[in-house]
Amino acid sequence: MNSAFQAALKATLPPQSLLIEAEALRPYECDGLSAYRQVPLAVCLPETLEQAQAVLRICLEHQVPVVARGAGTGLSGGALPLADGVVLSLARFNRILGIDADNRLARVQPGVRNLAISEAVAAYGLYYAPDPSSQIACSIGGNVAENSGGVHCLKYGLTVHNLLALKVLTMDGELLEIGAQSLDSPGYDLLALMTGSEGLLGVVVEVTVKLLVKPERAQVLLAAFASVETAGAAVAAIIGAGILPAGLEMMDNLSIRAAEDFVHAGYPVDAAAILLCELDGANAEVSEQIMAVREVLFSAGATEVRTAQDEAQRMKFWAGRKGAFPAVGRISPDYYCMDGTIPRQHLAQVLRRIGELSEQYGLRVANVFHAGDGNLHPLILFDANQPGEMKKAEDFGTDILRLCVEVGGTVTGEHGIGVEKLDAACSQFTAAELAQFHAIKAAFDPAGLLNPGKAVPTLHRCAEMGRMHIQGGALPFPELPRF
Amino acid sequence: MTTESVLINRVRQAIADSTPLCIQGGASKSFYGRTCQGEPLDVSGHAGDIRYEPSELVLTARAGTKLSEIETLLAANNQMLPFEPPHYSPGATLGGMVAAGLSGPRRPWGGSVRDAVLGVKLLNGRGEVLRLGGQVMKNVAGYDLSRLMVGALGTLGVLLEVSVKVLPRPADERTLVFELDDDIAAARQIAWGRQPLPLSATLYEAGRLYVRLSGSAQGVQAARVAMGGEETASALWAEVREQTLPLFQTKQALWRVSLPAAAPAMPGENLTEWGGALRWIVSDEPAESIRQHAAALGGHATLFRGHDGMGEVFHPLPPAMLALHQRVKLALDPHSLFNPGRLYQGL
Predict the structure, then answer these.
(1) Taking burial as the number of CB atoms within 10 A of a residue's CB, which of A60, B147, B233, B280 is the most buried?
(2) d(CA A23, nearest CA chain B) in Å
(3) Which pTM does this prediction carry?
């Protein structure tokens, strides 16, 4: 590390806020996607806004890239450090600044954990809706960066639908206030643009979240099906009946068995697929909808429908779904989680094709699916210790994501592009679209120092990979030289 | 030649001639915002091609498609646009709805236009056609530029196509009315806002608080019993959404003030919607004082009607934010072709 740069950081940060020893840096070498690892130049853990501003200004002056980091639970390598860069950890920005129950909002620092918000406001009968599976650990700042989802998105939306305002530092240390405590704010909707920008546009230093009133009651139904197709049709039938479930999840047989072995949720292990359908609202409304959904499920061909008898059983039904990833982790040395979203009408076709690809690659797949909103999580099972298997799993995954794009979907529904899906993003966007994204990045961060190389692939990379999106038969990237 | 290629050619010609363009759909919201200086670009002919599968809860159509056509189609399938957009005149289009970004009475509970937009096909200021966002509910690939178009008043590009999330219509809907003084009405709304009630609209004007409940028949009935009040006709919600109530017919300045729902009253409030989060004020007070007051309460004020289109309509931005807006504008529209000055002077 350049000594002037190191001296400037040392002069700005208290000793406990600057890590430069190899041993201290090691825990920061990866995020939730541990297949990618890189030790950074330094880790800064500012405790005040002024310190965070100073770190950014020093990095700008020395042209050192900055990777902002929350809890490091991201699944796409968005917080993967750069060898020549600094990690700016917001872990010490961990205070809840204010709860305004009458306006149903909370002002929190970015390092506050997602679940901690709901816990802090529970006494007011309120909660924060987005519930990514990592909610006990993930930070709200990271949720903003990734536009995190969860199992209740169909009814309650993603992070972007549950924010009111942000305070953001630009690379030159300027503090911007985006959004407001009112329901709209003047000018462009930069709140939407910042959300899901994966740390490339600014560093979030304060978040104002929208809180919802806790529903009077939540109830869950579990339905078993003899085929994935009938389960898919049942999802369409529920929505066609005018019912908007709070959660609507599907698991295939391999996931059901893995989850059952792991948490003993009482799942029907012979079913080809199960649906979990959660209904919430006023007591009377939930009672009415449970009856309606039971009827729809049976007429759609469910072989069995169970209603959780009490809160303990409801939690048990969910435990199986929420534990699906670790459950699959128990039956395979490694797994690779995909995150494509498709229009639901193509579900049967996509799952059939994933099954064919599974045979072709000789790798098993467990399908877990946010059925209500079309977000698929196929888990590709492999063994990294077998030569070539990781590569095979990656190629398989890329084929799945390409398939999602072909049927009108996207390569990532809630995990982000990060470093992991840069190549997959090439198949989703044209050269003009990627160039537009880079122009937006430059409008916020002209020096290109905030999390460079993540989220949006370079035109060059897409051309080299030969995985570009061809539109209307036109030759892709005609402006780029070929060698 | 397709209507899309006509628009592409017009924009490319405008780049060559350095001619600014004023994008116009149904002209139903031309009163909203500042006056645009440039050649008209009529996009109302780029209409139709509706793709709609009710069980997907997604509708995609060309931006010139009439809002009335879309809402009729949705209603036939027992679905709706969750944000209840105002039309203001029969010509209102899907693209204009996105550009204006205005939501109706259901907004605090059903979400905004921006919440429902899933993707757009955009013609940018380089004459390129971009697909931003998509047709699925969950999509975090690329920057969210489709939602950035909402409320941008056409200053960032020409909308060619829009995909929106739609929702089932509630099985039951009822309107209640209460005779209450303003301070009690405000307190009542705050209290209701903290309970799990199926609210979907509120309106307070001249001593009467109207509340709409939406949901399943039994859910609405239970709330109706718990809340009290008298049942009344539901035509009111269309009248406030379309601003056909007498208050909105004023020739004076009409201010739209957006505040945190529980904020105290502004001086001279005439009508309150959105559980307190939207206040309408007819006033000849200087703009400066109304804006300052709104800002002090944590919100902002828009000069909605009754202005000459030359001064600032929207709440002024701090210098650093305005500079960022200008850079964002140039990233999408590098020749400053689209709707110059419509949102802010110099943008």
Answers:
(1) B147
(2) 34
(3) 0.96
- Best of B143, B174, B214, B259 to mutate (most A CBs within 10 Å, chain A): B143
- Among A190, A216, A455, select the one facing B196 at the smallest CB separation: A216
Cα A476–chain centre separation: 29
Please identify among residues 303-362 of chain A the ones whose CB lies closer than 8 Å to any CB of chain B. 341-345
Rounded to an integer, what distance in angstroms lies between the CA atom of residue A460 and that of residue B121?
24
Tens digit of each residue's pLDDT (9 = 90 or more) over A334-374 = 999 999 999 998 988 899 999 999 999 999 999 999 999 99
In order of A112, B192, B219, the CA distances from B226 in angstroms are 37, 11, 11
The CATH code of the domain that includes A277 is 3.30.70.2190
Angle at B64 between CA B59 and CA B70, to 5 degrees: 40
pLDDT digits (tens, 9 = 90+) for B90-106: 999 999 999 999 999 99
Domains annotated for chain B, with CATH where assigned, are 3-168+321-332 (3.30.465.10), 172-305 (no CATH)
CB proximity list for B237: less than 8 A, separation 6 or greater: B84, B104, B105, B175, B201, B203, B212
Q: Provide ipTM, 2 decimals.
A: 0.98
Q: Compare all CA atoms of chain A with the CA of B58 and give the residue at the minimum distance.
A: A343
Chain A stretch 14-53, residues whose beta carbon is closer than 8 A to a beta carbon of chain B: none
Test B130 with A436 for CB contact under 8 angstroms: yes
Sequence length of chain B is: 347
List of chain A residues with pLDDT < 50: 470-483
| Number of domains comprising chain A | 4
**A305 and A209 within one domain:** no
Q: What is the rounded distance in angstroms from the CA atom of residue B74 to the CA atom of residue B84?
A: 12
Tokens of A170: 């630009």
Least CB-CB distance to B112: which of A181, A184, A188? A184
Nearest Cα of chain B lies from the Cα of A206 at a distance, in angstroms, of 16
Residue A223 lies in a domain: yes
Residue-range definition of the domain harbouring residue A399: 332-416
Picking from A184, A210, A438 by the largest number of B CB atoms within 10 A of its own CB, the best residue to mutate is A184
Chain A, window 144-173: residues with a beta carbon less than 8 angstroms from a chain B beta carbon: 146-147, 149, 153-154, 157-158, 160-161
Give me the residue label for tokens 């995990």: A415
Q: Which tens digit of pLDDT belongs to each residue from B265-291?
A: 999 999 999 999 999 999 999 999 999
